[in-house]
Automatic annotation (TrEMBL):
PANTHER family: HISTONE-LYSINE N-METHYLTRANSFERASE SMYD, POTENTIAL PROTEIN LYSINE METHYLTRANSFERASE SET6. This is SET domain-containing protein. One of its GO terms (cellular component) is nucleus. It comes from the Eukaryota. It holds the Pfam family SET. Residues 8-32 have a biased composition (Low complexity). Residues 46-356 form the SET domain. Residues 1-40 are annotated as: Disordered.
């Protein structure tokens, strides 16, 4: 996902070191590395292995010679996805097919998604589950009529909040969050006739009403809702997200951070009760910190991907590092990413994709470096950049 420059007091990305080390071509290995377990959710295949590098975290290396054209990996493990609101009517909510500016045939107005076919709609409902559909319906109800509120993109050149700014912002909403949670739990207890639960007072209800009157950020809400629903259905895979490279300062600006803390309160106020235990400041922060350096853009498949519909995180796909002269091409087929060798690769070589979109690939080295630093937070150490 796009990010701006990071807090200079902390490294842009931090990693849990992971696997056995070995000499490599693109990123050299620290000699003291010991064999370690593969991170949860990392890709496993006889063609390659994931291991640590000295300068670029974990990476994928060929464990045998690979011929040009070989399909080396495909990732179906979509953990969260955001379809930007402005594209919701013309991009299928399930397979991300684009209808070139025209509305999709199948609309689910109450949940706020459109689909290219009833088959895609059925699959979406099945994967989203009843509680998920209720969650999207609650969001749609809140957002309808207010959807222009955050349509402007954030200026990525604003200063990024530092770690202490982030902690303070979340602490500042903790008291209101607690009041809202009590109000919501009171609803549930009232229905069940449970007298042990704290009764919601006027003060509690006022905190909830106040949250609902705040400015809303529909795309940030989609990010949080999509990942909370996914975590609800796939609790066993949460470790796969936690194992990804971490950005400790994932917010683009103070406004962006505020939008997240406000969204937290909105979601506490409106999401179905079974999801509330997952609506925590910690979960939302952890998601942002993993999304930032790992999500891929969901773009149009034509025009070199010039239309940016949104983004998503496929944890296993996030172990491939970037190169400005990649030997692997990643292609999106619906909700799945395919990784194919675009040249013959020798055993021991690093398998790299490009994180740059079509036109960005033709930029000069300096411009590419700047783009990668701004959007992904790293100084590119690929062979092509290091050779100059
Ligand atoms: C999607 S992750 C790739 C896997 C990551 N290395 C890991 O250990 O999880 C992206 C992060 O990997 C690192 N990275 C990827 N390509 C790089 C490159 N060419 N030069 C330096 N760092 C790179 C950066 O820290 C970046 O934010």
């Amino acid at each position: 996902m796009d990010t701006a420059e990071s807090d200079s007091s902390v490294p842009a990305t931090s990693y849990a070191t992971s696997t056995a080390s070995r000499p490599s071509s693109a990123s050299s290995i620290h000699p003291s590395e010991m064999a370690k377990e593969l991170p949860s959710g990392a890709p496993k295949c006889s063609l390659f292995e994931v291991r640590d590098t000295a300068t670029a975290g974990r990476a994928v290396f060929a464990s045998q010679d690979i011929l040009e054209g070989t399909l080396v990996w495909h990732s179906e493990d979509l953990a969260l996805s955001v379809l930007l609101r402005e594209y919701r009517r013309e991009v299928c909510g399930q397979c991300f097919r684009y209808n070139y500016g025209r509305d999709m045939d199948v609309r689910d107005r109450s949940a706020g998604f459109a689909f290219c076919s009833t088959g895609c709609q059925d699959n979406w409902r099945k994967e989203t589950g009843e509680v998920g559909v209720q969650a999207w319906t609650a969001v749609e109800r809140l957002v309808k009529g207010r959807s222009k509120e955050d349509s402007q993109m954030v200026d990525a050149d604003l200063p990024r909040p530092k770690t202490q700014d982030i902690s303070l912002a979340w602490e500042n909403v903790a008291a209101q969050a607690a009041l809202i949670r009590i109000t919501r739990e009171g609803e549930q207890a009232g229905r069940a006739g449970d007298e042990d639960v704290i009764q919601a007072t006027k003060q509690h209800k006022k905190a909830l009403q106040k949250a609902l009157q705040q400015h809303i950020s529909p795309d940030i809400m989609s990010f949080c809702v999509s990942s909370i629903i996914w975590r609800h259905h796939h609790s066993e895979d949460w470790a796969n997200v936690l194992a990804l490279a971490v950005d400790k300062t994932p917010y683009h600006s103070a406004d962006d951070l505020r939008a997240f803390t406000r969204t937290y309160l909105h979601l506490l106020a409106i999401l179905p009760l079974p999801l509330l235990p997952l609506v925590t400041a910690e979960t939302i922060f952890l998601l942002s910190s993993r999304d930032s350096h790992n999500s891929f853009g969901i773009r149009s498949l034509e025009d070199e991907g010039s239309e940016f519909f949104g983004y998503g995180c496929w944890p296993a796909a996030s172990y491939f590092n970037h190169s400005c002269g990649p030997n692997i091409e990643k292609t999106r087929k619906g909700r799945v990413w395919q990784f194919r060798a675009v040249k013959n690769i020798e055993k021991g070589e690093e398998l790299c994709i490009t994180y740059l979109s079509g036109e960005e690939r033709r930029l000069s080295r300096g411009q590419r470096m700047l783009r990668l630093k701004k959007n992904w937070g790293f100084d590119c150490r690929c062979e092509r950049c290091e050779a100059l």
